Amino acid sequence: MTSKLRILCLHGFTSNGHVHAHQVRRITKALPQYEFLFPDGPHVVDVASQMDMDTPANQAWADMVNMLSTSGHRAWWFARDGDWNNKETGGFYGLEKSLDYIGSYIQDSGPVHAIWGFSQGACFAGMLCALMQEKHSSHPLRKHLPAKISPPMAGVIFSGFRARFPQYDGLYEPGIDMPMLHVIGKQDALVHSERSEAFIRVCKNSDVLIHAGGHDIPKSVEDQARIFEFLK
């Protein structure tokens, strides 16, 4: 067994573990005392059906993912709104499969001491941090994780948000106890500050880092120093 503290790192929608590792390499290289784990989401994304590929930025992103990794575009779930005409409720389709997968991943590779995530991965990280608390041992989703899994000591949330569907509200009540660092970009056009703030409000021990960038990982020395300090 490794003696290093282990951090589970969850990528965003249409990314994968290898690409996320590349995105955060400046941070991870500066923290050799930690072991960083970068699993791929279990769901393959048909990126052409999820993004406007006529937009140069989207095409550039798709090309970069394919250049850096053979895992393709991945996700932890697909968010779908309800269709009341057909009596269908909305939700995160595929969430249970991802919980099963992460539960087995942790069981096979060993305990994790912190969880971080970016965007969709940040929302998933928050849900995992909540579910792994003892007070949610009877939550319906908890059965997808190992019975004796240990909760992480901390979470790092990059461009995160609270799950917007009401069936997940119970996860956030009465709150998440462990220390959480919320990293928010001032220019984030994909996850607006109101969504991040809704998640911050249910975390009882929060630290907030607001950086000058957008929907990305902060790059300044000062911002990264805040992340280092939190993890230490």
Task: Explain how this protein is built.
By secondary structure, the chain is an alpha/beta fold. The chain has a single domain, classed as Alpha/Beta hydrolase fold, catalytic domain (Rossmann fold, 3-Layer(aba) Sandwich). The chain is built from 8 helices and 10 strands. It has a 6-stranded parallel β-sheet with strand order 2-1-7-8-9-10, sandwiched between helices. It has a two-stranded antiparallel sheet with strand order 3-4. Strands 5-6 form a two-stranded antiparallel sheet. Helix 7 links the parallel strand 9 and strand 10. The protein starts with a strand and ends with a helix. One of its GO terms (molecular function) is hydrolase activity. This is Serine hydrolase domain-containing protein. Keywords: Hydrolase. Pfam families: FSH1.
Indicate the topology.
Elements: E1 5-10, H1 17-23, H2 25-29, E2 34-37, E3 43-44, H3 47-50, H4 56-68, E4 74-75, E5 78-80, E6 91-93, H5 95-109, E7 114-118, H6 120-131, E8 154-158, E9 180-185, H7 193-200, E10 206-211, H8 221-231
Parallel strand pairs: 1-2, 1-7, 7-8, 8-9, 9-10
Antiparallel strand pairs: 3-4, 5-6
